[in-house]
């Protein structure tokens, strides 16, 4: 039996109280759904800066529960307000801190707002978790922390200089977590996400991630733009793998895994040209009237790294992480989600 299955079985038999910050966002709502399916109690916190109420509603529905389920309590509030964080942490066993202002371009355009949410908000959450005697604080770190270090694959203890304000904020999160672990003996685990994708990821807006944005554009027959020559590569990781890492991190009994940071990825590389071809091929197999357009290449985006691939051996060794989805299987599920959403919207508007 895998370590993850043992965790699932344990949660099936034992109920805890979890705080999921950023619960109305992409990763947060998927964590909400996963925990509800395991009959856990969840407190959700979000200010709807980037999340949506319909994400929470769909997560609850997909978990097979009614909208008024007693398992979920939502607090609308901002992590930049310490009182809100203190309230949210009361009687909580585990914190899964996902709330942040993501996006490298957003941070370049508005570094002050990014700093406020990602550093001040993070510190507020650490203080609140400490004061509430939370058992463990698992937080969303970022692969952007590797910065300009050229080595591949990326190994947790070797980082370079940050390339954006966003990268600075996520590295500061790790430093604060280390200091709180040493000074206050709070248990933390940081998860360096590498290009997580999957259902409920927002395809719209200036800061949309590449996979949902391109799926939506190809489906609509809109123009796709590729930053650079298309040889830029990423370690794209399906959401189910990120859920696994959050639950493993929260419940591990391996002391060597506590107060550590881990890559959340596949140790794989897919360049943007390959990614576009994969999306087009998958949609072409599912849609009879797909309008194909040749993507347009434009300037490389400021603050981005050229190549990113993660070494996941530390997570495998200390947490027994075993990814369940490669990019191809995750892509199929993601595209099926977007197609089903379009069909559902069509029926509602009919």
Describe it for me?
The model has no long low-confidence stretch (mean pLDDT 94). The chain has helices at 3-13, 26-37, 53-62, 82-89, 104-109, 111-131, 165-184, 210-220, 239-251, 272-286, 313-319, 327-349, and strands at 17-21, 41-46, 72-76, 94-97, 136-142, 188-193, 196-197, 225-227, 233-234, 237-238, 260-264, 270-271, 296-298. Helix 8 packs across helix 10. With 350 residues, the chain is of the alpha/beta class. Helices cover 45% and strands 15% of the residues. The chain has a domain at 3-197 and 238-268 and 309-326: NAD(P)-binding Rossmann-like Domain (Rossmann fold, 3-Layer(aba) Sandwich), CATH 3.40.50.720.
In the CATH hierarchy, the architecture of the domain at 3-197 and 238-268 and 309-326 is: 3-Layer(aba) Sandwich
Largest sheet: 7 strands, parallel
Gap between N and C termini: 48 Å
CATH homologous superfamily identity of the domain at 3-197 and 238-268 and 309-326 = NAD(P)-binding Rossmann-like Domain
Q: Which percent band covers the strand fraction?
A: 5-15%
């Amino acid at each position: 039996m895998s370590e993850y299955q043992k965790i699932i079985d344990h949660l099936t038999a034992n109920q805890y109280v979890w705080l999921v910050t950023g619960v109305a966002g992409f990763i947060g709502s998927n964590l909400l759904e996963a925990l509800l399916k395991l009959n856990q109690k969840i407190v959700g916190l979000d200010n709807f800066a980037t999340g949506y109420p319909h994400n929470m509603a769909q997560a609850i529905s997909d978990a097979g529960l009614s909208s008024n389920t007693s398992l979920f309590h939502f607090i609308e509030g901002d992590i930049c307000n310490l009182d809100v964080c203190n309230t949210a942490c009361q009687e909580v066993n585990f914190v899964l801190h996902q709330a942040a202002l993501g996006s490298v371009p957003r941070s370049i355009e508005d570094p002050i707002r990014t700093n406020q949410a990602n550093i001040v908000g993070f510190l507020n959450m650490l203080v609140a978790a400490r004061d509430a005697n939370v058992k463990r604080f698992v937080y969303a770190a970022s692969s952007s922390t590797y910065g300009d270090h050229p080595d591949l694959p990326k190994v947790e203890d070797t980082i370079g200089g940050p390339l954006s304000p966003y990268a600075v904020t996520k590295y500061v999160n790790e430093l604060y977590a280390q200091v709180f672990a040493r000074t206050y003996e709070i248990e933390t685990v940081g998860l360096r996400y590498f290009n997580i994708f999957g259902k409920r990821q927002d395809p719209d807006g200036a800061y949309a991630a590449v996979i949902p944005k391109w799926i939506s554009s190809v489906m609509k027959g809109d123009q796709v733009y590729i930053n650079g020559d298309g040889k830029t590569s990423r370690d794209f990781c399906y959401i189910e793998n990120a859920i696994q890492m959050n639950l493993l991190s929260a419940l591990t009994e391996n002391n060597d895994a506590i107060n550590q940071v881990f890559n959340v990825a596949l140790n794989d590389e897919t360049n943007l040209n390959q990614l576009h071809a994969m999306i087009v091929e998958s949609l072409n197999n599912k849609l009879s009237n797909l309008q194909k357009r040749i993507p347009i290449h434009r300037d490389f985006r400021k603050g981005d790294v050229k190549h990113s691939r993660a070494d996941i051996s530390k997570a495998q060794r200390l947490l027994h992480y075993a990814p369940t989805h490669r990019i191809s299987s995750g892509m199929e599920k993601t595209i099926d989600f977007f197609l089903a959403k379009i069909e559902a919207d069509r029926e509602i508007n009919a």
